[in-house]
Design brief:
Chain lengths: ~350, ~200
C-alpha cells in the first residue's frame, strides 16, 4: 500500500504535482502559524520591556490572541475608497503577501529539506525581496491618498537603498562559499559555531541585520508608517483582510530575513557544537531556534530604539553602509585570494 | 517536454501581450506595470532554456531597480496621455522604421548564430569548459573574467561615466541650506554641548 503510494507520488506526473503541493503546504502552514505567533511574541516582548503584561485575556496566557485578531480582520468589511483604483488597490496586498511566501521555496530547513534546491538560490531570494517593494508602491498609488502615497514613496526609496548593501553582503558570503546554492552555503559552515560566518564576517552580519530592519520597515526605520506624520503610511486606506495581508506579509518577510540571516551567518541547520548530544537534535530545530533568536532581536530593537529621521536613514544607507560593505567585499576577496582560502569549485 | 512547450507558449504569449499593452494602455502607470510583467515573463523564458543566472539578473536589475525608478517618475509626474497620443500618426513612420531595424538585427543575429561555431562557443572551448556540464553562473564567470576581461572593464567604465554624468547634472550647491554635519556634531566637546545644573531641592530651577 505505502509502496504504491510512494511510487505514484514519485513517478506519475499527477503524483509529482500532488507531492509539490504537499511540500508547499508543509512549508506554508507552519509559516503562517509562526507569523501568527510572531505577532503574539512581539507584543509580549514589548510588554515586558515596558513593564506591562501584554495580551493575556484570550485563552491561557493570551495564546489565542493572534487567532482572535485574525478572525476580527476576516469578519470586518473590506472598504475600497471611491476614488481609488480598485483593481490595483486589491492586487497590491496580494502581491505583498505573495512575494513574502514564494521566497520560502529555496530556504533549506535541514539537510535536503528544501522545496527547490536551485543553483541560484541566493539570487532568487534577492530577486524576490526586490519585488516586495511593488506591493507597497502600488498600494500607495492606488489608494489615491496623499498619506498613502508619501508612505509608499518613502518605503520604496528605503527598500531600494538598503537592498544595495544587502546585495554586497550576499556577495561577500558567496565569495566565502563559492556557490549560490543555499544548501551549499550552509554546508560550507559546518563544524563549531565559530566556523559559522557571523564571526569571520562580523561587520557584514551587523550590516545585514540593520539592513534587514530597514527592508522590513521595522523600527528604527519604520518611517513609511510613522503614525505621527503619515497616519499609517501606505496602508492608510486599507481595512479588514486587505490590511491583514500587508500585516501578514510584513511579518512573513521578517521571518524570511531572519531565516536568511540564519542560513548565511548562523550556520543554518548545524548545531553549535559538532558532537552528541547536540548533533542528535534534528537540524530543523536548530534552524528554528536561530530564526527565533534573530526575531527576538527584531522585537528587542523595536522596544528599545526611537525612529530615525528620513535624511539620517538615507545617509546611513548610502554614505555609511554602501562604502563599508563595498570595502569589505574587496577586503574579503583579497584575503581569500592571497591567503589561498578560495573555496574549491 | 509537453509541459515545457505549454509553459513556453504561455510565457511567450504573455510577454507579447504585455509588451503590446505597454504601448496601447492609456494610463502611464499601467504601461510601467505591464512592462514589469513583460520583464518577468522574459525571465521565465530564460529559466526555461536553462539560463537561470541571466533570468535572476534580469529580475534583480530590471524589475527590482530600473522599473522601480520608472514607476517613481511616472507616478510623480502628472502625464496627460491623451495629449501625448496626439502626435501618434506623425511619429508612426519613424517608430516603424526603428522597429523594423531592430527586427532585422535580431533576425540577422539568429541567422549568424545558427551557422557554425560562434565566438562564444570558441571562448568556452578555449577555457576548457564543456557548456552543458557546468552550472551557468560559474561558466559565465570563467569566460567573463578571462576571455572578455577588457570588454568587461570597459563596460564597467561606461557605467561609471554614466553615473558621474548623472551626479554632475543634478549636483548644485544652494546657499542658505542648513545641512546636518554629523562629523561636526560628533567632534563637539562635552563642555560646549551640555551644562550640568544642580537644582536645589524644593526650589526648582
Amino acid at each position: 500500500m505505502i509502496d504504491t503510494v510512494v511510487l505514484f507520488l514519485t513517478t506519475h506526473w499527477l503524483g509529482q504535482a500532488i507531492l509539490i503541493l504537499l511540500q508547499c503546504l508543509a512549508v506554508t502552514v507552519p509559516l503562517l502559524v509562526a507569523v501568527a505567533y510572531m505577532t503574539y511574541v512581539d507584543r509580549k516582548v514589548w510588554a515586558s520591556i515596558q513593564l506591562r503584561r501584554g495580551p493575556n485575556v484570550v485563552g491561557p496566557f493570551g495564546l489565542l490572541q493572534p487567532f482572535a485578531d485574525g478572525l476580527k480582520l476576516v469578519l470586518k468589511e473590506t472598504i475600497v475608497p471611491s476614488s481609488a483604483n480598485s483593481v490595483l488597490f486589491v492586487i497590491a496586498p496580494m502581491l505583498a503577501f505573495m512575494t513574502a511566501l514564494v521566497a520560502w521555496a529555496v530556504v533549506p530547513f535541514a539537510d535536503g529539506w528544501v522545496i527547490a534546491d536551485i543553483n541560484v538560490g541566493i539570487l532568487y531570494l534577492f530577486a524576490i525581496s526586490s519585488l516586495g517593494v511593488y506591493g507597497i508602491i502600488i498600494a500607495g498609488w492606488a489608494s489615491n491618498s496623499k498619506y498613502a502615497f508619501l508612505g509608499a514613496l518613502r518605503s520604496a526609496a528605503q527598500m531600494v537603498s538598503y537592498e544595495v548593501s544587502i546585495g554586497f553582503v550576499l556577495i561577500t558570503v558567496l565569495l566565502c562559499t563559492g556557490s549560490l546554492n543555499l544548501s551549499k552555503v550552509v554546508l560550507a559552515q559546518s563544524g563549531w559555531f565559530w566556523n559559522w560566518f557571523w564571526l569571520p564576517l562580523l561587520p557584514m552580519f551587523v550590516i545585514f541585520f540593520i539592513s534587514a530592519l530597514a527592508e522590513t520597515n521595522r523600527t528604527p526605520f519604520d518611517l513609511p508608517m510613522s503614525e505621527a506624520e503619515l497616519v499609517a503610511g501606505f496602508h492608510t486606506e486599507y481595512s479588514a483582510m486587505t490590511f491583514g495581508l500587508f500585516f501578514l506579509g510584513e511579518y512573513a518577510n521578517m521571518i524570511l530575513l531572519s531565516a536568511l540571516g540564519a542560513v548565511l551567518f548562523l550556520g543554518g541547520w548545524h548545531s553549535p557544537v559538532p558532537y552528541a548530544p547536540f548533533t542528535l537534535v534534528p537540524g530543523v530545530i536548530w534552524f528554528a531556534l536561530k530564526i527565533a533568536f534573530l526575531l527576538f532581536i527584531f522585537s528587542w530593537t523595536k522596544g528599545t530604539l526611537p525612529r530615525y529621521r528620513y535624511d539620517q536613514l538615507m545617509r546611513l544607507g548610502w554614505k555609511v553602509f554602501l562604502p563599508v560593505s563595498l570595502g569589505w567585499v574587496v577586503l574579503t576577496a583579497a584575503v581569500l585570494q592571497f591567503g589561498g582560502w578560495l573555496p574549491k569549485p | 517536454m509537453l509541459l515545457q512547450a505549454i509553459a513556453f507558449y504561455v510565457f511567450a504569449a504573455v510577454v507579447i501581450a504585455s509588451a503590446a499593452m505597454v504601448v496601447v494602455s492609456r494610463n502611464p502607470v499601467y504601461s510601467v506595470l505591464f512592462l514589469i510583467l513583460a520583464f518577468f515573463n522574459a525571465a521565465a523564458l530564460f529559466v526555461l532554456i536553462g539560463a537561470e543566472f541571466i533570468a535572476m539578473i534580469l529580475v534583480i536589475v530590471y524589475v527590482g531597480a530600473v522599473a522601480v525608478l520608472f514607476l517613481f517618475v511616472v507616478m510623480m509626474l502628472d502625464i496627460n496621455m491623451t495629449r501625448l497620443k496626439e502626435g501618434f500618426l506623425d511619429y508612426l513612420p519613424i517608430g516603424a522604421l526603428i522597429g523594423a531595424a531592430l527586427l532585422a538585427e535580431i533576425l540577422f543575429g539568429i541567422g549568424v548564430w545558427g551557422s557554425g561555431s560562434s565566438e562564444t562557443v570558441r571562448a568556452f572551448n578555449q577555457a576548457g569548459i564543456p557548456p552543458a556540464t557546468v552550472e551557468n553562473t560559474r561558466a559565465i564567470g570563467q569566460v567573463l573574467y578571462t576571455q572578455y576581461f577588457y570588454l568587461f572593464q570597459v563596460s564597467g567604465l561606461v557605467l561609471l561615466l554614466a553615473m558621474i554624468g548623472a551626479i554632475v547634472l543634478t549636483l548644485r550647491s544652494r546657499p542658505g541650506v542648513r545641512r546636518q554635519r554629523v562629523a561636526d556634531q560628533l567632534y563637539r566637546p562635552k563642555e560646549e554641548a551640555i551644562t550640568v545644573v544642580k537644582v536645589p531641592s524644593r526650589e526648582g530651577v
